[in-house]
Amino acid sequence: MSAAARRSKLLLMGKSGSGKTSMRSVIFSNYSAKDTRRLGATIDVDQSTVRFLGSLVLNLWDCGGQNAFVDNYLTAQQSTIFANVAVLIYVFDITSTEWEADLKYFDEILTALRENSGDAGVWVLINKMDLADKEDPARKKYEERKADVIAVEERIRRERKEKAEKSGKKIPEGEEGGSIRCFATSIWDESLYKAWSSIVHTLIPNIGLITSHLTFLRDLCLAAEVVVFETETFLVIAKSGTPLDTDPSELDVAETESGIGKLDRQRFEKISEIVKGFRKTCQRTGEQWLGFESTFDQCSVIVEPMTRNSFVLVVSNDSRIETAMLQYNLNMARNHFSEFSQKPSLDRKCGLCRGSKELKYEAEGDDDPSVMAWDDCGRGLQLLG
Ligand SMILES: Nc1nc2c(ncn2[C@@H]2O[C@H](COP(=O)(O)OP(=O)(O)O)[C@@H](O)[C@H]2O)c(=O)[nH]1
Ligand SMILES: [Mg+2]
Asked: One Pfam family name from the record (predicted)?
């Protein structure tokens, strides 16, 4: 592994049977939801490493949820497990009949996490929603559980602060333990991709910069939307315009004009699921899936490899734009994009990079006012220009 590889420790915890290993297998190991029925119980901690987007390495600790193990995590193994955690993903089972006990475990684990990794992000996934939705389509139970979880987190944060104040210490900035994010999930639908994309999205370095380049590419192609997916998992990494999960009432001007707000809000997750399913079928028949290209009445779409570890989706709803043009502009952008995901530094900054505070290192093109975004794709600009 290169010295530049970033390691991010992700803890996957929650009671036995809540679906931790199933999720991990569907997202990272190409299992279908049905395949997960044959998974055995996880004994103790199952560690796996996932290389995600070149230099980002996710170190996933799937912690078996049987009582004896959990007690061990909280005592003898506490500092091994909870030190240097980037993210805790805590999985609850919505069908569990022991909510009080489940919540108590969560309480103990979050307390241990905060003592050892004050700045870790926390995601709570309330899983198996497919089983609850039939009886409770309004999701009242989910809302109640979510409120309980948030109350636990708030209490822990308050108590930590009070304890620190009493002993005359101050909790370092950034380690106060921010709010937690809660998702309703099921391994049987795209909700799982939504939650995991949200997690992984926050771990990607230079995300603001990737977004501004995607927005530039979108505008250059007169496209409606440009989205980047990670190749193996097909999780969404970033999109053009406003951040993932922006409310349709807060879209940027280009998004509003192209009617993005009227599209299905789960569209990216559905694409992830479809592509992964289709790729599996291809594997069975000995074919390789390389990409997708199509022109419909009012819209052109391409899904193409972007960098070594990512695919890009470009959607244009301007009938004058042909897919070959989208591909052409993409080719021009590709080299510069691959620098973000594969190199620890850039050889050359383009006009967009120059204006960004995210890039701390110096690179060629820093003080040249004539450098356009992005410099080496001038021909693409001219063609559309
Ligand atoms: N209906 C349904 N079953 C699930 C879901 N997630 C996991 N399961 C099932 O729950 C069982 C236990 O899952 P497993 O991943 O081993 O749980 P773990 O102990 O938390 O690792 C398996 O039979 C899975 O197929 C879900 O979202 N919906
Ligand atoms: Mg397991």
From this structure: Gtr1_RagA
Specify the fold of 207-384: Beta-Lactamase (3.30.450)
Instruction: Name the CA dihedral angle for 5, 195, 246, 291, rounded to a multiple of 10 degrees.
Output: 70
127 lines ligand 1 (CB under 6 A): yes
Per-residue confidence band for 361, with pLDDT thresholds at 50, 70 and 90 = low
Q: Domain 6-201 falls in which CATH fold? A: Rossmann fold (3.40.50)
For residue 349, which of 198, 244, 212, 233 has the smallest C-alpha distance? 212
Q: Region 22-31: what's the mean pLDDT?
A: 88
* Distance of alpha carbon 245 from alpha carbon 144, whole angstroms: 22
- Counting ligands in written order, the one closest to the CA of 93 is 1
Q: Which of 228, 132, 186, 170 is nearest to 22 (CA)?
A: 186
Measured by CA distance, the residue closest to atom 23 of ligand 1 is: 37
From-to residues of CATH 3.40.50.300 in the chain: 6-201
β-bridge partners, 294: 301
Closest atom of ligand 1 to CA, residue 131 = 1
In degrees, rounded to 5, the angle at the alpha carbon of residue 73 between the alpha carbons of residues 69 and 75 is 115
Residue type, 183: F
In degrees and rounded to multiples of 5, residue 4 shows phi and psi of: -80, -10
